[in-house]
Amino acid sequence: MGGRADIGGRADIAALVTEFYRRAFADPRLGHVFVDVARLDLPAHLPVICDFWQAVIFRAGTYRRNAFGVHADLHSRVPLTPELFARWLELWTTTVDELHSGPHADRAKLQAHRIAASMGRRLAEAPTAPGTPAPASTRAATATVATAVTTAVTAPGRHRRPSEPG
Ligand code: HEM
After folding, report:
1. Domain 10-153 sits in which CATH superfamily?
2. N or C, where is the chain less crowded by C-beta within 10 Å?
3. Residues within a 6 A CB radius of ligand 1
4. CA angle 102-52-124, nearest 5°?
5. Per residue in 82-103, pLDDT tens?
6. Structure pTM?
7. What ranges do the domains of the chain cover?
8. 4 CA to middle of ligand 1, Å?
């Protein structure tokens, strides 16, 4: 036990997501999507991301937007492949683990996996460019990853909440 504290509230979430996006922007595979495709204005976006994670981790009613729609739009410009999702999850998991430990940290990781699986499944059916279906290979691979991830993280007694896309 490394003495890491659990995620305690909004301030911890802000520090956590700041560190996660620092890594994601610098990542050889993911950085391109944030920097070149979305041209994400991170300081402007962080409050929204914090609202999202506060809703997910603490079941707070802080997030009412459509996160899936944001990623479907993104996916129409650059395919969000199973490899990208896997990398995203890897970065999220290691960042959470390095900073925190406890039930809220576990929930942050579990829900990220569930949401990523759900997004991946739905994106596999979404167009990658206006009017063009995703290549069959991408669809099949995404479905496989989504199934694997769902199977790995599905715990009894959990239900999707309104704040979670999917
Ligand atoms: C391949 C994986 C992913 C990539 C490349 C990615 C990238 C992005 C980008 C570029 C944005 C900003 C889009 C814009 O406003 O123009 C965004 C927003 C967001 N992402 Fe992701 N994302 C990924 C997976 C996920 C996952 C798995 C989650 C949740 C567990 C997530 C949660 C969010 C949220 C909450 C927002 C803000 C949506 C809003 O504006 O309300 N993302 N993502």
Report:
1. Globins (1.10.490.10)
2. N
3. 30, 33-34, 38, 40, 48-49, 52, 65, 67, 70-71, 74, 80, 84-85, 88, 112, 115-116, 119
4. 100
5. 999 999 999 999 999 999 999 9
6. 0.81
7. 10-153
8. 27
